[in-house]
Amino acid sequence: xxxxxxxxxxxxxxxxxxxxxxxxLDDLYALQSDPEVCRYLLYEPRSRERVAHVLARDAAAARLxxxxxxxxxxxxxxxxxxxxxxxFELHSVDPDRTAEIGWILAxxxxxxxxxxxxxxxxxxxxxxELGLHRVYAELDPRNGASVALCERLGMRHEGHFVEHMWxxxxxxxxxxxxxxxxxxxxxxx
Length: 189
Hints:
This protein has six helices and eleven strands. By secondary structure, the chain is α+β, with helices and mostly antiparallel strands. α1 crosses α3.
């Protein structure tokens, strides 16, 4: 594995993954305080103070080296506008080489392919640069947009855990999707 890995911006055709910055607070707050955006997330809409704390914490996450190290880069368009965030956490380094991926996109940016491109950039990092074996996503299966994104990325539906967690006053299911290094390589060929 190519660890440690220190964050540097990752460029795509239409998006750039970059560290969160202090001036992202308004956009991040708009995202994380929106009840519709938070509907399928693990948290309720957040206060501005909570988002400021999260921003400071996640902006400092810039190195992957050990299990539970994570990145939460901003997704930006070519003009630098904030579109959302990605999530990438190492879960195992040796011997399993596994990570989790996730995304949150601002409502105005949904349906334009930005999340697909950003996720492909992180999967490229995972498999082509870091040498990971497996990347997975866990999500609420009612979130059709995230399910469709997993499928577009070539992730396989591995499981559906019924009433897996008590969340926001109800039992919720968890969907599990994953892609392996050789599956990613075959898609890229």
